[in-house]
Amino acid sequence: MIRIMERIARISRSLTQSWATGISLLFVVYFGLPALQGDSSLSALKALEGQERALLSQAADVRAERLAMQHRVEKLGGSTLDPDLLEEQVRKRLGFVHSDEVILFLN
Question: With a cut of 50, which residues of the chain have pLDDT below it?
Answer without folding.
Answer: none
